[in-house]
Structure formats: structure tokens, C-alpha cells
Amino acid sequence: MNRSTLEKALGLPEPWKITKDTFSVKEQRLDITIDFEAGSTFPCPECGAEGKAYDTQQKTWRHLNFFQHETYIHARVPRVECPQGCGITTVGVPWARPRSGFSLLFEALIMTLVREMPVAAIAALIGEHDTRIWRVLHHYVEEARGDADYSEVERIGMDETASRRGHNYITLFYDLDEKLLLFGTEGRKQGVVSAFREDLQAHGGHPDQIKQTCSDMWPAYIKGVNDCFPQAEMTFDRFHIMKILNFAVDQVRRDEAKTRKELKKTRYLWLKNPAKLTAEQQQILEDLPTNNLRTAKAYQIRLTFQEFFNQPHREAGEAFLKRWYFWATHSRLEPIIQAAKIIRKHWEGVLNWFDSQITIGILEGFNSLIQAAKARARGYRTNRNLITMAYLIAGKLDFGLPT
């Protein structure tokens, strides 16, 4: 192949030039050797002052395949002695970032593939170990996040997602207005909110600018928000509230099913709204003697609670909630009574929905994508890998890579 064509394809500036190219059909490999002209000067990586090569180091980078053939770039990389006193430093090359074994274009390919494929599949496709791929992903995610500006973030949502089987979680913090992931960290204890506050400040934000938060009723989140964001109004997510009530209804069904065999295998009938039932499920529900079922009573209490969110304003919502609470706590259904008491304990955060109108439903959507990616990859070895993948899915990061 014409070397000038290769130089143009690689975008080589002076004083770099291709001095050798070796193509082996047998080894399915193309090797390109790049060098610089004698007497060339290079800018100091620290201050930009021009200096001559002090010595060189031989390095190799994996580049994009030439058709089906693996391609490698080899070059003597100079070190310069800075005339301004910065010492002896290694010069950057235009086709790769420092300390990487891949060219920029090869890394751009990796960053494109990872949006559609598991890392292990990419590693098998390009013939590299997956740890090298993860190093690339970590670098670009961390670099892109370093440039992020959080100075205008005002409303945040937080939620956990499982990192592996058992009680292992990461907590993710989102900008609810821009619908993007701001921060991810291991665990779901109180310290995760403190870690987010530090990260917010590191990106130009301030705790006092956070006006509203949304989460479930996990005590560590509540205490963390109270301690770290005292100016924020806390709203408890409506979908998590309904999850508490759904759990209570199911507990009533489980207990009653011990003596009422007709309730066997009806779990999902009681977890859906009537409009969401299939024709077959509607028929099963109609055939049940619902007038005498404690489960049916619990189900009706749950359905009625949903009307809370349709009230015209906070005052009407609170009046509705008081009536509902009296009904629920006098229902003689212990799981429903306990659910009502949980809501009473978090009364203000439940009512704050009328002021903020925020939920973390968008977080649940992102969490589903993250869990789907984890399932395709058959899990990740470390939480750091999972958090990096979460940033790739929901972070809207600009990696500034060549195309």
C-alpha cells in the first residue's frame, strides 16, 4: 500500500512519517512502523516549550483491522528535556493517548461496540483480554465525568440496583430534570448520600442548590438527605408506596390461601389494576366469591389509595389520606394496617408529591436497562465495572473520540 495514503489515513502530522510497512497474509497481520525526522523538536507535555529528543522508547499499539488482518503501529516515542525546567518527559503521539496500548481509533471502536455488546463478547471479537477493554472504558468514563458540570442540578432521584445475588447493591443518583445519571457508588448505607454530596461539589455544585429529592423510604437515604441536603424537600416515590401496598395485599392473600384454596395461583390478579387484567384474569376474578374474601377487601383498599394521586391539591390530598388511613387501620387486616402505619410515619414526604410532582420512574427504566446489560454479560466481576456500565447507559457522557 502507498505509504502516503497510510499517512493520510492515520492523520500523521509532521515530523511523523511511516518508514516501514509489513503485510503478512500467513499471519493475517499488518505492521506499520512510524518514526520522526532527525533533529525534530517536540513540545513539552507539561508547558508546551519546544525541545529536542533526549532519548526514545520503542512502543506498540493495536490499531483498527486492515480488512480481516490485525494491524499494529510501532514507533520510537521520544522523551524531551524541557528547556523551561520541567525535566525529562515523554512526548504524546497523535494516534494514541498516553499509557494506552490501543490507538485512538481502536478505542473509539471499543466505545461504540460496548453500547451494543457485552465486554466479554467484544474481547472475543477483537482478540483481546476483557481486562484491557475495561481499562479503556474506565478511562473514558472517568475522563468524561471529570468535565461534567453539576452547578445547575436542583432535583435529584436516588435508587439502588442489585450488583449480584444476595444483598449487594450500588446506589445511583440522577438529575431528574435532565434525566441523566450523575453519580454511582457501592452500597446503600447512609454514606452513599455523603459520597454524592462530595461528588456534586467536585463538579461545581453546592448542597444548598438541591431543592428536591425523590427516593423510596429506605432509612439510610432519608437520614443522608436530612444531613447532607438540609434545604431539600423530600418526596417519596409513588411507585414505591404502591409497592408497599402491593406487598401487603399479597401477604393477606398468602395468609388467606391457607384456608381458601381458590386463592391459589391468583397472586398477579391482585397486583394489577382492573384495566390491566387480561380477559382470562377478569373472568377468574369474577368467578371468585369476592364478597367474603379478606384479600378482596385488601385489594379494594389498595385501589382506593391510588385516588390519592388524583386529588387536585395538597389540602385535598391530606384530607383524602386521613380518611383512607382511618379505613386501612380499622380494616382488621394486619399487613394493611402495617403498610398504613409506614405511610403515616412518612406523611410529609408522601404529601410532598403535590408540590414536586416527581417520581423515580425514569430511574426504574434505566435500572432495567442496566440489569439487562448485566444479564447479557452474565454479571460483572466488580462493582466498579457495573457502575462504569451504568454511566455508559445513562450518563449521556461526551467522550470526544475520533470518528
Distance between the termini: 23 Å
Strand count, sense and barrel status of the largest sheet are: 6 strands, mixed
Q: What is the percent of helical residues? A: 40-55%
CATH superfamily of the largest domain: Ribonuclease H-like superfamily/Ribonuclease H
Question: What is the arithmetic mean of pLDDT?
Answer: 91
Q: Helix tally?
A: 16
Please report the first level of CATH classification, the CATH class of the largest domain: Alpha Beta
At CATH level 2, the architecture of the largest domain is 2-Layer Sandwich
Shape: elongated
**Number of extended strands:** 11
Number of domains: 3
Give the helices and strands as they follow along the chain: HEEEEEEHHHEEEHEHEHHHHHHHHHH
User: Could you tell me the radius of gyration in angstroms?
Assistant: 29 Å
Uncertain residue segments = none
Proportion of residues in β-strands: 15-25%
Briefly say what this structure is.
The chain is of the alpha/beta class. Helix content is 44%, strand content 21%. It is built from 16 helices and eleven strands.
Explain the layout of strands and helices.
Layout: H1 3-10, E1 16-24, E2 29-36, E3 41-43, E4 50-66, E5 69-81, E6 88-90, H2 104-113, H3 119-126, H4 130-146, E7 155-164, E8 168-175, E9 180-186, H5 191-202, E10 212-215, H6 219-228, E11 233-236, H7 238-257, H8 267-271, H9 279-287, H10 294-305, H11 314-329, H12 334-345, H13 347-351, H14 353-356, H15 361-376, H16 383-394
Parallel strand pairs: 2-5, 7-10, 10-11
Antiparallel strand pairs: 1-2, 3-4, 4-5, 5-6, 7-8, 8-9
Helix pairs in contact: 3-4, 4-16, 5-6, 7-10, 7-12, 15-16
